[in-house]
Amino acid sequence: MTGSLASRFVLRRSSSLPPSRFLFRRGVSLPATEKTKEAFTPARGLPAFDHTPTAYSGISADEILAKRREYLSPSIYHFYKNPLQVVEGKMQYLFDEKGRRYLDAFGGIATVCCGHCHPDVVAAIVQQTKRLQHSTVLYLNPAIAEFAQALASTLPGNLKVAFFTNSGTEANELAILIARLYSGYHDIISLRNSYHGNAGGTMGATAQSIWKFNVVQSGVHHALNPDPYRGLFGSDGEKYVRDVEEIINFGTSGNVAAFISESIQGIGGIVELAPGYLSAAYNTVRKAGGLCIADEIQAGVARTGSHFWGFEAHGVVPDIVTIAKGIGNGIPVGAVVTTPEIAKALTRRNYFNTFAGNPVCTAAGLAVLRVIEKEKLQENAFVVGSYLKERLTALKDKYELIGDVRGRGMMLGVELVTDRQLKTPAKDETLHVMDQMRELGVLIGKGGYYGNVFRITPPLCFTKEDADFLVDAMDYTFSRM
């Protein structure tokens, strides 16, 4: 499926539906006056998919929204002017309460890697739930031991000791604690534009004001972001490392506890690090007595395609790896994996987590690893992700509104700007395109400090046909702006 969407798909509208409901139809080109006469059919034009959603009989979207406003925290927000109600998912697709199918190119924020409700993962969860839903790590259970061993087998070097958590934020909190205990130092270096969580320590390591409250966040220094698109030194990784050296020399006692970095910044807008940066930064930090923490919560678990872990593309081996999101395919599970020596730092006092290593969650994690291997999802992420990036790059050549296309595998970003020279963020345009693509049946995320970057992080079972539909929907939307 190539070429402009407008030449092959027709917008059709029904008098019984809102005027913003759209439909693709192949192979027809009608005059504008005729387009409004056609009937609307949901999800026409999406790649063929053999699944019929269960009829929904629950409360309406308006009722859910009213209950959210009354009973849930006002900090919880939603995408789209008219919030989308999702009631069912199957592989790379989601369904609303009316049975309409959507192509999910956001994957629950880079979380659903095997596909929604993948039968193997569901079976593992159900079987474990029937047998034992929860006990405690104070007793022995095979689920946690087998998952820990399987997870260690995917990591390089001596990274083989895991402590399981419930989320990525919790994993990063624990990693920072371990680094401080092991090194004996307090200072942490992270990158500007990074996101590592929203608890006490991780909020300090996060370096975007939109995610930081006015609370004490001590001992963290934020280095220049080695951003090839917006960074001060472009793609010159070595120059950015000098800032890490200066932070150590002038902002600390000369020793640091750790350096923490994502291999591709996720919430920051799918920002790849400048070539050569991570390796040089690791060397600099280790000379100052610090440990190197790889935040793989979004970029890990085969998502980048070329490697199972994002940091591997940089030729480095971290001291600590934090993992979450994709490893559970939607089940809340995270992990901190480090070396046996570093892991001993937690034995100086009691450290415990009631739900860490829950048998249902670890059974799900093991099933995820097995599905990735059995279905060759890492290879698919590379092949389909590369194809998708090529098609998105072609759109950049077509529309001045696209300032940059970046990322690897199934972790891609498209940044919109109103001026390519000034790189002026196109915030309103980003929201408009998101809304229109939702109407066409495609769900994508957004991120970046200015909220002008499309985050494309679909399930790793995404196909080339799905990629074509996504890009053609984006092409069609841009062509009508």
Automatic annotation (TrEMBL):
Q: Which InterPro entries match?
A: Aminotrans_3, Aminotrans_3_PPA_site, PyrdxlP-dep_Trfase, PyrdxlP-dep_Trfase_major, PyrdxlP-dep_Trfase_small
Asked whether the keyword DNA-binding is assigned, the reply is no
User: What family does the database annotate?
Assistant: Belongs to the class-III pyridoxal-phosphate-dependent aminotransferase family.
GO terms, molecular function: alanine-glyoxylate transaminase activity; pyridoxal phosphate binding
Q: Which GO terms describe its cellular component?
A: mitochondrion
Any single Pfam family the record assigns to this protein: Aminotran_3
Q: Which GO terms describe its biological process?
A: photorespiration
EC number(s)?
A: 2.6.1.44
Which reaction is the catalytic activity of this chain?
A: glyoxylate + L-alanine = glycine + pyruvate
Superkingdom: Eukaryota
Q: What is this protein called?
A: alanine--glyoxylate transaminase
Task: Tell me the enzyme class.
Answer: transferase
- Which cofactor is essential here? pyridoxal 5'-phosphate
Swiss-Prot/TrEMBL keywords: Photorespiration, Pyridoxal phosphate
**Keyword hit for Lipid biosynthesis:** no
Please report the organism this UniProt entry assigns to the protein: Cajanus cajan
